[in-house]
Amino acid sequence: MITEKNFRKYRIGAKAQRLFIMRENGLNVPELVCVQSADSLRDFPFDMNGLYSVRSSADCEDGDSMSFAGQFSTCLNVRGIELGKYVRRCLSSSETAEEYMISMGKDPEEAHITAIIQKMVPSELSGVIFTANPQGILNETVIVVGRGLGCNVVEDRTDVTHYYYNTTDDLYCLERQNDSPLLTDEQLKELINISKKICCIFGRRQDIEFAVESGKIYVLQSRPVTSLTDDAVTVLDSSNISESYPGISLPMTESFVSEVYYQVFRSCIKRATKNDGTAERIDASLRKMTDSANGRIYYRISNWYDIILLLPFSKRIIPIWQEMLGVRDKEVTHGDKKAGFMTKLRVTTSFFQLLSTNRRNMKELEEYFGDVYKRYSNAISGTDDPETLLELYCGLRDELAEHWDLTLVNDLYTFIFTGLLKKCLTRKYGEKGQELTNLFIAGSRDIESMRPVKMLADIKKCFTESGALDDLRYVTDEESFERALSKCSNGARLISQYIDLYGDRCPEELKLETVTYRMKPYLLAKNIVSAAECGTTTEKELPKRGILADIFARKAAAGIRLRESSRMSRGRIFGLVREIINKTAEALCAQGRLSNSDDIYYLRFDELFEAVGNKNTELRELVRKRRENYRSFEKLPLYSRLVFAGEPVDKQLADASAGSLISGDTLRGIPCSSGDAEGEVLVVDKLTPDLDSDGKIIAAKMTDPGWVFLLSRSAGIVSERGSLLSHTAIISRELKKPAVVGVKELFSIVRNGDRIRINGSTGTVTILERKITMNEAI
Question: What's the sign of the alpha-carbon dihedral 591, 597, 602, 605?
Answer without folding.
Answer: positive
